[in-house]
Amino acid sequence: MTDPRKTPAGRVLALLDLTSLNAGDDLQSTVDLCRRALTPYGEVAAVCVWPKLAHVARRTLNTLGGRDVRVASVCNFPGGNAPLADVVEEVRKTLAEGADEIDLVYPWRKLKAGQDTGAVELIRTCKTLCGPYHRLKVILETGELAAPELIRTACREAIAGGADFLKTSTGKATVNATPEAVRVMLEAIEEEGGKVGLKVSGGLRTLADAQVYQKLAEERFGAGWIKPEHLRFGASALLDDLLCELSGEAKPISTRDY
């Protein structure tokens, strides 16, 4: 019998940051999310929730036997324009609530307006709080930046600040992940020796969607690079498609919005 983790859908499952960032999220929806994260075919890499729900996710996963599933949470989200002191305090509180990983929105509006972003200082300060045991993913909002030169600048500033991952999108913009933006991000990651990870989020609904980006990363860095330490997919609807692939069931039309 084939190990589910060695199938195409199983490999993507292991890279999934199962995400719920909806206005009505609460204790029960977070518990349900954590239950979904522990599938019959293996665990996802992480669940991603609002800061106020990080402690619920951590406690629930521990109770259900999912201690290896990371808890990610978003800060400076979704606008990316909060004052430095406010962002730092938000990151501090979110880590104290039990988050293992912080998904931090880069100040893309300032970059787009041609202003000094202050991004390196912001990211460096937040990475200092995260330390060596908590990953910092920097959300660039590439669909809003759009121009390759702006995306490249954002990548370089995020890496200079100490980002562990570059992330495409909040999932709340009109344009989210695109292959064109991811190619620029991978080029920036290659400049630093492939040490920084990539998280693709926004608009991923099917295994085929994820495989587009998996292939781009594999072509640049090789199959050995494709692991949760280097590549993540942030989504909710994607899990439904992966489970259908793994179970061989007919695929429902997903109504999930991320």
Which features does this protein show?
single chain, 258 residues, alpha/beta, eight-stranded parallel beta barrel, two-stranded antiparallel ribbon, 45% helix, globular
Provide structural commentary.
The structure is a single chain. The mean pLDDT is 95. Helices cover 45% and strands 16% of the residues. It is α/β, with parallel strands linked by helices. Strand 9, helix 10 (207-221) and strand 10 form a beta-alpha-beta unit. The longest helix is centred in the last third of the chain and has 15 residues, at 207-221.
Largest sheet: 8 strands, parallel, barrel
Number of helices: 11
Report the end-to-end length measured between terminal Cα atoms.
33 Å
Indicate the structural class: alpha/beta
Q: How would you write the strand order of the largest sheet?
A: 1-4-5-6-7-8-9-10
Q: Would you report the number of β strands?
A: 10
Shape: globular
- Radius of gyration, in Å, reads 17 Å
The ordered H/E elements are HEHEEEHEHEHHEHHEHEHEH
Low-confidence runs (pLDDT<50, min 5 residues)? none
How helical, in percent, are the residues? 40-55%
Proportion of beta-strand residues: 15-25%
> What does the average pLDDT come to?
95
Organism: Pseudomonas denitrificans
EC number: 4.1.2.4
Enzyme class: lyase
Protein name: Deoxyribose-phosphate aldolase
